[in-house]
């Protein structure tokens, strides 16, 4: 068996066409997940009654089960709920009109929110309590102290963890091929099947994943260097 080097370049060019979609499927869920994670982290830290057990279950479930299962549950579950509601309210709407990409984004966002909440919570708890007490001493409210001092320090300490999340969800987008989304791995599989050159196609897609991951790590490293000085300051 010989490797067709020229086909690797051909496959690389073909697979790169869906790179924007894969990046969209990576960054959108993670960024939305960070917003969810901030809310969930505050609820868990404050131990708000009634809500805290719900978010604890949410975090435990989504961190304790595989992402492919989340995609399948959302993909098959939401249409049932939507159709039931439409029938109850006598609405002229069919769940089949919802793009498949929407289900994947919802599943990935919920998963990202669970992981982000733990990162943010640990980052907040890692900031010395004296920072919050000092903020109270100068007349700041809890929300002001969190927004101006605690969260920036927590995020700066958590940059390596968030980098891992971004890279992890970049790889997790490959699971969308199970529900017919043609992202990087999906197109690589199609190209390989058509030409019967699986090794070459997956070498090409491997280089793409590796390259994007390296760029994410480089950007994160530069951001970390810029914000590290601020994380040591406080009030």
Automatic annotation (TrEMBL):
Please classify the protein's predominant subcellular localization into one broad category. Answer: membrane
Residue intervals passing through the bilayer: 21-43, 55-78, 98-116, 162-181, 201-220
Q: How does it sit in the membrane?
A: Multi-pass membrane protein
Q: Which InterPro entries match?
A: AA_ABC_transptr_permease_3TM, ArtM/GltK/GlnP/TcyL/YhdX-like, MetI-like, MetI-like_sf
Q: Which UniProt keywords are present, listed alphabetically? A: Cell membrane, Membrane, Transmembrane, Transmembrane helix, Transport
Q: Where is the ABC transmembrane type-1 domain?
A: 19-220
Q: Which PROSITE patterns match?
A: ABC_TM1
| Subcellular localization | Cell membrane
Give the matching Gene3D superfamilies. MetI-like
Q: Which family does it belong to?
A: Belongs to the binding-protein-dependent transport system permease family.
Q: What is this protein called?
A: L-cystine transport system permease protein
Q: Which organism is it from?
A: Lysinibacillus parviboronicapiens
């Amino acid at each position: 068996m010989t490797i067709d080097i020229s086909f690797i370049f051909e496959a690389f060019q073909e697979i790169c066409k869906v790179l924007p979609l894969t990046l969209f499927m990576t960054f959108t869920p993670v960024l939305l997940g960070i917003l969810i994670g901030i809310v969930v982290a505050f609820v868990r830290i404050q131990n708000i009654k009634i809500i805290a057990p719900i978010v604890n279950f949410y975090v435990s479930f989504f961190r304790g089960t595989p992402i492919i299962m989340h995609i399948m549950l959302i993909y098959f579950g939401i249409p049932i709920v939507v159709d039931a509601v439409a029938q109850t309210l006598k609405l002229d709407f069919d769940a089949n009109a919802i793009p498949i990409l929407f289900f994947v984004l919802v599943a990935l966002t919920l998963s990202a929110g669970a992981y982000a909440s733990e990162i943010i919570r640990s980052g907040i708890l890692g900031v010395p309590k004296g920072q919050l007490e000092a903020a109270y001493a100068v007349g700041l409210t809890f929300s002001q102290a969190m927004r101006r001092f605690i969260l920036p320090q927590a995020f700066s300490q958590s940059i390596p963890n968030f980098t891992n999340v971004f890279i992890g969800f970049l790889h997790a987008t490959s699971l969308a091929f199970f529900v017919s989304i043609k992202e990087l791995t999906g197109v690589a599989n199609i190209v390989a099947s058509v030409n019967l050159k699986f090794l070459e196609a997956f070498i090409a897609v491997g280089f793409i994943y590796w390259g994007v991951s390296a760029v994410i790590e480089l950007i994160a490293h530069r951001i970390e260097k810029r914000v590290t000085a601020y994380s040591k300051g406080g009030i």
